[in-house]
């Protein structure tokens, strides 16, 4: 049972928020100083950001670095007995506003095609 302030962030959540802010995974790759293929690999085949990449993402997104670092540590330990403890710590350091922004970003991206059909006049 977790009593955190918000859900843990996963690598894909972080990449989604960066993409929303920047407009492309290519630009996110530049911020993280990785080849764009690395972003594609993380999205489609799994894996986590390295700690230096996570710190760059946290700085870019304006998030507390401990929230991102703890989330990456928890994600790396998914099949470990330490996962629940790390997830709880990550959630304790993830502000509610950050969690809400993550959920909102995913919802916006998931419905982008529908949003473009709504008349603005």
Care to describe what's here?
By secondary structure, the chain is mainly alpha-helical. It is 68% helix and 0% strand. The chain has helices spanning 11-22, 25-32, 36-45, 51-61, 65-76, 83-92, 96-110, 112-115. Helix 1 (11-22) crosses helix 7. It is globular and about 35 Å long. The relative contact order is 0.20. Residues 1-5 have low confidence and may be disordered.
Q: What is this entry, summarized?
A:
With 121 residues, the chain is an all-alpha fold. It is 68% helix and 0% strand.
Number of helices: 8
Order of helices and strands: HHHHHHHH
Structural class: mainly alpha
Which consecutive residue ranges, at least 5 long each, have pLDDT under 50? 1-5
β-strand amount = under 5%
Radius of gyration: 15 Å
| Mean model confidence by pLDDT | 78
Largest sheet: none
What helical percentage do the residues reach?
Answer: 55-70%
Q: What is the first-to-last residue Cα distance?
A: 47 Å
Rough outline: globular
Question: How many E-type strands?
Answer: 0
